[in-house]
Write a structure and sequence with these properties.
One of its GO terms (molecular function) is secondary active sulfate transmembrane transporter activity. With 671 residues, the chain is an alpha/beta fold. 57% of the residues lie in helices and 7% in strands.
Length: 671
Amino acid sequence: MGLSSNRVEDLSGHACNETIVTISTTTTTTELQISSNPPFEVHRVCLPPHKTTLQKLRQRLLEVFFPDDPLHKFKNQTWLMKLVLGLQFFFPVFEWGPQYNLKLLRADIISGLTIASLAIPQGISYAKLANLPPIVGLYSSFVPPLIYSVLGSSKHLAVGPVSIASLVMGTMLSEAVSYTEEPVLYLQLAFTATLFAGLFQASLGFFRLGFIIDFLSKATLVGFMAGAAVIVSLQQLKGLLGIVHFTSQMQIIPVLSSVFQHKDEWSWQTIVMGVCFLAFLLTTRQISTRNPKLFWLSAASPLASVILSTLVVALLKSNAHGIQTIGHLQKGLNPPSLNMLYLSGPYLPLAIKTGIVSGILALTEGIAVGRTFAALRNYQIDGNKEMMAIGLMNMAGSCSSCYVTTGSFSRSAVNYNAGAQTVFSNIIMATAVLITLLFLMPLFYYTPIVILAAIIITAVIGLIDYQAAFRLWKVDKLDFLACLCSFFGVLFISVPLGLAIAVGVSVFKILLHVTRPNTSVLGNIPGTQVYQNLSRYRTAVRIPSFLILAVEAPIYFANSTYLKERILRWIREEEEWIVSNKETAIKCVIIDMTAVSSIDSSGIDTICELRKTLNKRSLKLVLANPVGNVMEKLHQSSTLEAFGLNGIYLTVSEAVADISSLWKSEPESNI
């Protein structure tokens, strides 16, 4: 196939000789408002090197699924070294283990014991939030951290139950099964949902599909977590007020209605204790937030509150009838729960759906937390490997009486501030939980439920990030709308539907950007060869006889019709401006293709149709700086031949200079 211009070079067999012709622009400097740099060079527009379809497919798949090239360490290595690297790749413990020493151990012991003081009361509290027995929260703080310490790559991620996943699981399962009337079935569904959460998470990592969780945008999560925090806090009014009969619904109106409908159940002893300890927890949290060196205050305060409140109730048990307590907790290690998995029956779809939704949220939080602290310490974590680690951790947990776990932001922040050096701090934490399970469970008999409610409120109140919402309003109104939809959807509809609405708004935003891309009119900045948006740069000026447009998106079937209509509208508006200002008529339309990263057959057809339409109006269409992928498709579709000798240029400035010189050298009637 022949090429349309001697400035278009095929690179399939040889290098591109870029300079083709030299043009002096000194005679047109004043008229065109372009740079007067002597002799101006017009460069060839090169086609990309030839590749077969299989080569293109391979490159595309590598870019989609392996953008970080995870196997680059294996190149040019011996088989023995590849075996060692393989073990380190799948089991990061073999990477940091050989270099472990007493100095690192000392730091990890301190941080591990510190996060254990936070993990034990939070584990019990979050299990109650998921409507599970408190002991399950402790089980979930023992086995999963051990699994993650072998498979995980984050040095600071502290693993265990988290509030959002607990809330979602409790909400979705309680809609179909009562945890008070059918506790065994509820527990079976919780373990089964954890299994499917782990399967889903591990599958995403194994098949390199981690980009799917990116649909949960920052704006969506800000609104969702704030709404969930409000709902969780209101739900804890049951414990803070001592209410026995309380609604299982999670919407704001039923929750508030239930609070005031059961005023006769309010317990003044519970309220006094709850308010005092809640004030204590919030105060220590505020002190630690303002002075990070005092992080141990907020880390130790939950356990201190549990110990102190338990002592108070135990000493005043004869006078504390209105204060509900946890009661008996079974001692011992996690019992196996493989036989409790609910793998057939009418509730299996519910377990699968709950597992996928809670698994996505847990994965999103865990990956985000891991990347945050990795960035602070200047190391990288592999997102897909983390997904596999978290997924396998939950799969193992489902068989050992655990529910969905992931990396907790609050515990990870404490772990980081306490000086954790490796993931071994999770093993220290799990050891502390193990000692608690084996020997200390009877001590929780008199622990008041109100203290668990206070701990949960203190933990989730930090999820309300009003500053982030304000930034969204200032930066992107559509993101702010997604945030509001997520927030109010969780409050007034339900947790999963609120999340679905927010994701829908985010997807709509993506579609809006794809189907309605930005276009703009460019002008020359005097004294340079730079062309920028006329509405942004007041110094930019129009070039007489030219209309220069920029398209800032790929040209696909979804936006091709819109772009054609929008370009024709730009031309009409420019002609109206020319008439009103008595300027020179348009003779050439240049489309700057710099930001057009790709094009499909519909986009090519649109360009051809636009060229024909403009030809009928005696207007020349020129393309400037098409990228390699676009050039290749224009060449293969024979579109380049239709554009002729002067239809493709490397830059806008070269197009303006070359075409202007042609107009100067040829009679106007022949143009």
